[in-house]
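Structure representation.

___
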Amino acid sequence: MDSSFFNDHLQLPFIGRPGVDNLKKKRVLVVGAGGLGCPVVSALASSGVGHIGIVDGDRVNATNLARQFLYTPDQVGEFKTTAAIDYLRTRCVETSFEGYPLYLSPQTIDSLFAAYDLIIDATDNFLSRSMIAQACLKLGLPQVYRAIFRTEGQVTVFNYGESTGAMTDLSAVDPGAIVGTACTESGTYIIGSMVIGLLMANEAVKVLLGLPGILAGKLLLFDVLTLQQRIVRFSKPLATTPLEQII
């Protein structure tokens, strides 16, 4: 291992050499390589996570390049997984990457997830989010979950420690009744997607290293534009519906 690449973390008392070595052994699966997945994957690789899997069946689209910074105009039409890994391998040589250019299905999700230590949901539709949450709960895998709408975001962690809150605990609303607005209709605050993506990666590192302050059983609500934030503890359905517009 090239220690110089991780020099910043080696000097931190809450990470140091033990933490760097520990992260090197971890396997994280990021589902979704869009506006949230890009900052998540980049931050995890830069932090020294040893193996990162990326699941996404979409291809690079020119209209998304502003918020999906792992891709270039020359890669339009390529699978996002391939394009992202091509870039990441040029700078994060200590991390191994595996791409899954596919959409999740009930037939494959359990076997795919079982090979990883932690799952990060960076998808853009409720069906995928529900499938991911159910699989993680079934397999006992910690999951980083989020929602984002324009400048506002929410982040939490499921299935960690004694706080085993699940996605169903966040809202009493029937999933079939939840209607999201497409990014093309509601707009996207580019900085917002990057900030929320980095907060997701932050929770992942905290879980992998057992650091304090993990958002397990707690929902962070953060407005990137105004910097207003609050944390809500949940052990039963909240009175309000979580933001369901996902980038």
Observations:
- Residues 172-182, 237-247 have pLDDT under 50 and may be disordered.
